[in-house]
Each structure stands twice: as C-alpha cells, then as structure tokens.
DNA sequence: TAACATGGTTTCCTCTGGGTAACCGTGCCC
DNA sequence: GGGCACGGTTACCCAGAGGAAACCATGTTA
C-alpha cells in the first residue's frame, strides 16, 4: 500500500510530527502514561529533571496532536489528569522500546564509546 | 529483572543515549540504514533537508555509541559506507515504527489539531 | 587548465529551545 | 491574615544547535 506522505521528504507534514515524537521529554511522558493516567505534578516528580515550563509545553503539543487527553476534576485544588488516547496508545510498544533501550544496552554503548575514543585519541 | 539504570533519573547515563536516539535526524538515518549500507552522499540525498554538517555530526555520534559502523573503500574518489551494527539493528523495529508512524496516522493527527484549535480559538 | 565527484571540516551567524524564577487564582487549614 | 498545594503562564536571558557557505585533498575527465 502506498501512502500520501513520505517522512523522507523535506516539507512533508509528517516531519513535524516526527520532530514532536523524536524528543526525549515527549517519549518519557508517553512512556509514563502507558500504565495509567497521571497528574501534572506527578509527572513532574517522576520524570526527574523536566522543568514545569517544558512539561506544560510538551503536554499541550501532544494533546493538540491527539496523542493524549487532558481531564480536569473540580476538586480543590483542581486536579488535572493526563491519559493516552487510542491514537497515542498505538505508539506504546515503540515508545517503551526506545525509551528503555538504553537501560538494557548501556554497557554495550559504554564499551563502544571507550573503544571509539581509544582508536582516535 | 532489575537494571542498574533508570531513564527516569536525571543523571542516569541512559538519558544521554535517549537524547541521541530521540532525534529526528538520527531516527531517519537509522531507518534508512536498515535496508542496506549507504554512502554519505546517498544519505544526504535521501534524507531531504539534512545539512552536510548535521549529517556528519550525527553519524559520528551514532558510530561512537556503537550503533553503526563506518567503512572506507580506497576508490577514487574515496567511498565511505555506513551500516548498522548488530547493536544498532536491535532498534530496527522501534525506529521504523516511530519514523513512519506519522505517515500512517497523519490524517488523524491533522483532525485532532483542527479540533483542538477550534475548541480554544 | 578547469571542472567535477566524494566525504568531509570549519567558520560565521542567527535564532530559538529551555532553564530560572516570579507570578496567578482558588480554596483549604491554622 | 498567612501559608500551602495544584496547575499552570509569563518574562528574562543565555548557550548552543543548526543552516549556509567556503574550504580541503584526491584523482579523473574534458
């Protein structure tokens, strides 16, 4: 089957989507939401090192792209829950694999780096 | 099984690897190399819009991490071929899925964006 | 002799991504 | 009244990513 879009093309709109997905913070957010809906400050605590501003921006963009949804509960203080949409869930396996690949292969990567650095001092 | 690394931790070395992988150009390069080894200028032609500098930098980093290897042939002019290592090939499925996801779901994304923008003018 | 191809490196410059930190509104408790 | 928690937004500022373009060596062809 042929698609109308080609991510290898410079001005293809899929490039914009790839740019959004190919982002450390976006991947970690999508990965974290796989298990369950998570609130803003919980995400901020779990994804260590992300700033409030970037978390907020990234969530907004992912929501706009239809990958996750935002639900507000009228508690006090207000509760906001983020969860994957069906569309977002189609990325689950790939996101997990990519996000956690380094955890499983860190030693091989470190060995490769050491070898590379020793080759060309 | 427990791993020594946790990508959710701020200073975990896996964060550096994730940062390398979570990059539009790196994903497109890794995707393109799945079929066959490819030469520098061929990559530059295929991945439309990438600059020579960024292609060169990204290839070097991916080689250093052990994801791809660089082979020089003493032709005239010199031929340089890039190919996936075994380590790099372990990412094949996830890289393809992520890189081409937008091609299969672009219409849903566009619809979500339109709906989002109409909600909060 | 000049142009072309490969596979880069280097310089320059711009622009924006992202960090820090302050601020906001609401409503609870003390 | 003051402080806190939640879920943000906004202003400010700076480093660094990345584009453009020039330069490099080699050797072949025209």
Note the topology.
The structure is a homodimer of 121-residue chains.
Chain A: H1 14-21, H2 24-32, E1 38-39, H3 40-46, H4 52-64, E2 68-73, E3 79-84, H5 86-89, H6 92-119
Antiparallel strand pairs in A: 1-3, 2-3
Helix pairs in contact in A: 2-6
Chain A binds a DNA duplex (30 and 30 nucleotides) through residues 39-41, 44, 51-57, 72, 75-80.
Q: What would the principal axes of the Cα set say about the shape of chain A?
A: globular
How many E strands of chain A? 3
- Which chain pair shows the most residues in contact? A-B, 57 and 57 residues
Question: Hey, roughly how much beta strand do the residues of chain A contain?
Answer: 5-15%
Low-confidence stretches of chain A: none
Radius of gyration of chain A: 18 Å
| Helix percentage of chain A | 55-70%
| Main beta sheet strand tally, sense and closure of chain A | 3 strands, antiparallel
Main β-sheet, spatial strand arrangement of chain A: 1-3-2
Order of H and E elements of chain A: HHEHHEEHH
Oligomeric state of this protein: homodimer
By helix and strand content of chain A, what is the structural category? mainly alpha
Which whole number gives the mean pLDDT of chain A? 94
Number of helices of chain A: 6
Distance between the termini of chain A: 49 Å
Summarize this, please?
Two copies of one chain form a homodimer. Helices cover 57% and strands 12% of the residues of chain A.
Describe this structure in words.
Two copies of one chain form a homodimer. Chain A is mostly helical and 121 residues long. Chain A has helices at residues 14-21, 24-32, 40-46, 52-64, 86-89, 92-119, and strands at residues 38-39, 68-73, 79-84. Chain A has a three-stranded antiparallel β-sheet with strand order 1-3-2. In chain A, helix 2 crosses helix 6 (92-119). Helix content of chain A is 57%, strand content 12%. The relative contact order of chain A is 0.12. The longest helix of chain A has 28 residues, at 92-119. At the A-B interface, helix 1, helix 2 and helix 6 of A face helix 1, helix 2 and helix 6 of B. Chain A binds a DNA duplex (30 and 30 nucleotides) through residues 39-41, 44, 51-57, 72, 75-80.
């Amino acid at each position: 089957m042929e698609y109308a879009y080609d991510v290898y093309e410079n001005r293809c709109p899929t490039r914009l989507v790839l740019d959004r997905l190919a982002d450390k913070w976006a991947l970690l957010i999508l990965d974290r939401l796989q298990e369950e809906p998570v609130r803003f400050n919980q995400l901020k605590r779990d994804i260590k090192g992300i700033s409030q501003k970037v978390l907020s921006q990234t969530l907004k963009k992912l929501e706009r792209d239809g990958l996750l949804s935002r639900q507000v509960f009228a508690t006090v203080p207000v509760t906001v829950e983020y969860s994957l949409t069906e569309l977002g869930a189609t990325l689950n396996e790939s996101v997990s694999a990519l996000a956690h690949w380094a955890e499983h292969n860190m030693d091989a990567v470190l060995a490769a780096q050491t070898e590379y650095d020793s080759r060309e001092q």
